[in-house]
Design brief:
Blueprint: E1 4-11, H1 15-29, E2 36-43, E3 63-69, H2 75-88, E4 95-98, H3 110-119, E5 124-129, H4 136-153, E6 159-166, H5 167-174, H6 183-190, E7 194-199, H7 213-225, H8 228-258, H9 266-296, H10 303-310, E8 311-316
Parallel strand pairs: 1-2, 1-4, 2-3, 5-7
Antiparallel strand pairs: 3-8, 4-6, 5-6
Length: about 325
C-alpha cells in the first residue's frame, strides 16, 4: 500500500503556479487515506525568488520543501537531479510522483496513478497522454516526433514526465545515465516494468507554455539520443539498403548500355550518380560507427552522483512558512 508520497516538481521561475498546485494537492490530501505527502520543488536556478508566504504549512501537515540547484540545468536534468537526491535521502516514502507545476498535470489524477501502482507492484506507472490542449501546429509537430521516435528507436512514446515511481524501482532508475538526457526515454531504456494510465492534460494555471516548436525539436532529439546505439544500427541498415540498391542500379544501367537500350551519355551519367550515392552511404556508415564508439566512451552524468554536485541547499516547511 502507498501511504507516504513524495511529489517532485521541477520549477523555473513559475512560483505562482507552484503555489496554486501546492494548494490543490493539500486539498486532496485532506480527502484521501495517505499518511503523508512531501511536495519537493526542484528550483532549477530560478532568477525569481520563491513566494514563500504562499507556501505556508497546511493544516493537513503536507510538507513542502524546495531543493535549490546551483545553476540552471534544464527541465529534464532537474528531474534527474531531484530523483538522485530523493534516492539518497533518509526519508520514509513508498513512491515518488513526478509532475509539472504549471497545472497541465492535474493533482486529482494522482489517485489514478496510486491505484494502478497498487494493482501492479514493482511497476512504474506512467500517464499516457490523451486529449491535449496545445495548438494544432504543436500537436502536428508532436505527432511527427512520435513517428520519428518509433522509426529510429523501435519504441512507441506517448508520455511525458507525469508518472509514479515505487521505491523498489528508484535505485535502478537513478543509476541509469539515460534519464539525465530524457526522463521518458530513460524509463523506456531502463526496461523497468511499466504500466500506462490514460490521462488527459489539464489547462495551464497562468500564461502560455514556454515549449515552442524549436524546444519540441530539441526535446525530441534528446529523447531519441538515449537510443543512439539502436539509432546507429537502424541508420546503418538503411545505408546498406541504399548501397545495395545503387549497386543493382549500376548493374542494370551497364546491362542496358551493352544491350543498346539506353541513349548515349545517359548510362554513364546514371552510373556515376549511383556510384556517388554509394560512396556517400559508405562514408555515412563509418561516421555513424565513429559516433557510436564516442558515445560508448562518454562519461555521462549518473543522476545519483550529479545530485551531490548540483544541489546547493534545501528549504523545508515549518509551522509558519518555507524558511
Amino acid at each position: 500500500m502507498i501511504k507516504n508520497l513524495i511529489i517532485l516538481i521541477p520549477v523555473f521561475n513559475d512560483w505562482p503556479s507552484f503555489a496554486k498546485l501546492v494548494e490543490e494537492i493539500s486539498q486532496l490530501n485532506r480527502k484521501n487515506s495517505l499518511e503523508s505527502i512531501h511536495i519537493l520543488a526542484i528550483n532549477d536556478g530560478s532568477t525569481l525568488t520563491p513566494e514563500t508566504k504562499s507556501l505556508e504549512q497546511r493544516q493537513d501537515k503536507t510538507q513542502v520543501s524546495i531543493l535549490h540547484l546551483n545553476r540552471n540545468v534544464g527541465h529534464q536534468n532537474a528531474i534527474a537531479a531531484g530523483l538522485g537526491w530523493v534516492a539518497q535521502s533518509e526519508e520514509n516514502f513508498d513512491a515518488v510522483v513526478i509532475m509539472d507545476g504549471d497545472g497541465e498535470d492535474k493533482p486529482q489524477d494522482i489517485a489514478q496513478l496510486i491505484d494502478k501502482a497498487e494493482a501492479n507492484p514493482g511497476h512504474i506507472v506512467i500517464a499516457a497522454r490523451g486529449r491535449r490542449n496545445e495548438s494544432l501546429t504543436f500537436r502536428m509537430g508532436y505527432g511527427v516526433y512520435k513517428l520519428l521516435f518509433r522509426l529510429f528507436t523501435g519504441f512507441r512514446i506517448s508520455f511525458g514526465n507525469f508518472s509514479l515511481i515505487p521505491t523498489s524501482c528508484l535505485t535502478q532508475l537513478v543509476n541509469s545515465r539515460e534519464i539525465w538526457h530524457s526522463y521518458a526515454g530513460g524509463v523506456l531504456r531502463s526496461r523497468i516494468p511499466r504500466t500506462m494510465v490514460q490521462i488527459d492534460r489539464g489547462t495551464r494555471y497562468y500564461g502560455q507554455s514556454k515549449m515552442n516548436f524549436t524546444g519540441l525539436i530539441l526535446h525530441g532529439l534528446s529523447a531519441i539520443s538515449v537510443f543512439v546505439d539502436i539509432c546507429t544500427v537502424r541508420v546503418l541498415m538503411m545505408t546498406l539498403g541504399f548501397i545495395t540498391l545503387s549497386a543493382l542500379g549500376i548493374g542494370t544501367v551497364v546491362t542496358m548500355k551493352f544491350l543498346g537500350l539506353s541513349s548515349p551519355g545517359w548510362s554513364s551519367t546514371m552510373a556515376l550518380l549511383m556510384l556517388v550515392i554509394s560512396m556517400q552511404c559508405v562514408l555515412l556508415s563509418f561516421f555513424l560507427i565513429f559516433i557510436l564508439f564516442i558515445y560508448r566512451n562518454m562519461n555521462t552524468q549518473i543522476p545519483v552522483n550529479a545530485s551531490n554536485t548540483l544541489v546547493k541547499d534545501v528549504s523545508h516547511s515549518s509551522s509558519e512558512r518555507i524558511l
